């Protein structure tokens, strides 16, 4: 499951909503690997209301409950912040905050972390350098969101990353079952991450397996700290009878 920002955390404390988010993620446990929404490592790094954090004990405790709920299943227009340049001291502190965030993720029993995300450029030089540097660091996987299926955009990033990476390459963006399988068969990716289909279909894996119709997503409710469960856990699940 691809990381999808849903803005269901407390807008002041940034503590995840355990009740809503536990159900949301645990219902998607069949995806195999779930990448949660981007989670801030300090208050300075948040961009808009309702996104979760992982710098405080209260946030970490909430995430721990959510992770436990998932593991139980798998059993092994608001104003945005304006960007600015960081000071040298803030750069050093941000690096330290990432370390603390990673330690807190371990305390919350997460299985791993994804550094989210790098760059907007599709220049071959940039992708080559990044892929080679990540390869040197023995990264477990790279998750790339690309406009692969847009014929007007040259496919530079994915091919360069795959060519310079011996680890797992996960592709994401506008894939359905057929195009995802083809990307793997053609050697363009090792796995496919699904984002929007996962939001509106907690049982996406089952629906793909039996060829069932997918729920249509409600884009207006993708993000919203003030809408509660609406658009989060109220999409219908596939009936048992339909799955056979």
UniProtKB/TrEMBL annotation:
Quote any Pfam family the record assigns. Oxidored_FMN
| GO CC terms, sorted | cytosol
Q: What terms describe the molecular function in GO for this protein?
A: FMN binding; oxidoreductase activity
Q: Which residues form the NADH:flavin oxidoreductase/NADH oxidase N-terminal domain?
A: 1-73
Q: What InterPro entries does the record point to?
A: Aldolase_TIM, OxRdtase_FMN_N, Oye-like
Q: Which Gene3D superfamilies match?
A: Aldolase class I
Q: What is the name of the protein in this document?
A: NADH:flavin oxidoreductase/NADH oxidase N-terminal domain-containing protein
The organism of origin for this protein: Sphaeroforma arctica JP610
């Amino acid at each position: 499951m691809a990381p999808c920002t849903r803005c269901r955390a407390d807008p002041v404390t940034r503590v995840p909503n355990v009740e809503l988010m536990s159900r949301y993620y645990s219902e998607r446990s069949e995806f195999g690997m779930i990448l949660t929404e981007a989670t801030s490592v300090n208050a300075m790094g948040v961009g808009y209301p309702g996104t979760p954090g992982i710098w405080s004990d209260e946030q970490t405790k909430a995430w721990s409950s959510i992770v436990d709920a998932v593991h139980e299943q798998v059993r092994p227009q608001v104003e945005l912040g304006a960007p600015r340049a960081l000071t040298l001291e803030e750069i050093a502190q941000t690096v330290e905050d990432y370390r603390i965030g990673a330690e807190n993720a371990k305390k919350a029993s997460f299985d791993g972390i994804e550094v989210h995300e790098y760059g907007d450029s599709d220049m071959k030089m940039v992708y080559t350098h990044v892929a080679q540097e990540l390869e040197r660091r023995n990264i477990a996987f790279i998750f790339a969101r690309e406009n692969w299926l847009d014929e007007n955009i040259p496919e530079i990033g994915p091919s360069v990353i795959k060519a310079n990476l011996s680890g797992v390459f996960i592709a994401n963006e506008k894939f359905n079952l057929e195009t995802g399988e083809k990307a793997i068969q053609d050697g363009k990716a090792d796995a496919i991450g699904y984002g929007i289909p996962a939001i509106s279909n907690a049982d996406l894996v089952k629906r793909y397996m039996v060829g069932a119709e997918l729920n249509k997503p409600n884009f207006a409710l993708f993000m919203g700290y003030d809408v509660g469960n609406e658009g989060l856990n109220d999409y219908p699940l596939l009936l048992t009878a339909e799955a056979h």
